[in-house]
Design a protein that fits this description.
Low-confidence stretches: none
Order of helices and strands: EEEEHEEEEEEEEEEEEEEEEE
Distance between the termini: 47 Å
Number of helices: 1
Structural class: mainly beta
Strand content: over 45%
Pfam families: Phage_tube_2
Number of strands: 21
Number of domains: 1
Largest sheet: 19 strands, antiparallel
Length: 301
Amino acid sequence: MARKFAKKALVFAKELTYGVDAIAATEPSVAVLGREVKITPLAGENTALEYDDGNLGNSAEIETETYVTLEFGVDWAGSGTAVTPAAYDKLLGACLRKATVKADSVEQAIDEDGADSITFYFYMDGTLHALVGARGSFKLEAKAKEFPKIMFTFTGLFVPVTSAVLPATDFSAWQTPLKVGAANSACTLGGSAIKLISFEYDQANDVIHQEYVGHEEVLITDYAPSGKLVFEAASLISFDPFAANTHVVTFELSHGVATNQVLWKTAQLQLGRAEYGDQDGTLTYELPIRPLSNVDLLISK
């Protein structure tokens, strides 16, 4: 019988010790209510032997590096409970973010010394792909009339593939998203409201697979966030994007309702060179953005 592409499930757990299977150790696990899940089960390199043996043509290759990459998206939403981390909280922890519970919110700040790691189990109709010691990066996307999402990319250590049945999954920790639009979203640039069409943020962590004698690890060695804003072009008097090139301003995007509200904000957003765009016949500005330092925050309320 043919195996079904849609019969798949993804589960993760935070590791207490790097590279030690947290799910097998019965650490609390979460089933991912995800989209666009993609796995590369044998990432890495093969190297040709290339002997001078007097023959033309190809020589055999041997495996010299193997790891696993995993990509997926989740809804950018709150937890559904006040002052409680969202279901994706520990995923952000393995992407150089650290959660702090405040009186009325949970803040995820950049943690340059962060060392959290994740174990993933990815089930694909009869097959289990496990990866341990996973760390990664993420992107935020919020577009008008669509659901906002976080797109994760993780790299983990290879574990031999085994046969396994799909597990029972509980997605109750995930909240139903709200569309980006007039009712539930607000955005300010430099303290003034703008009519935002789309927001993109890429933390762009440098994620490397490192292997030495007696040592194998996935590391995050740097990050270089970037992004893009698209918004309706108001009068030049109210905002001159051409004069604002390289200016550093505040920015805040909030979305959702109480217990299901998320924000991304920074006090140091550098604006790039503006271009014109067209949204249904309406003139727009398209601005590349450059978050500076490590002060931007992801917040859930």
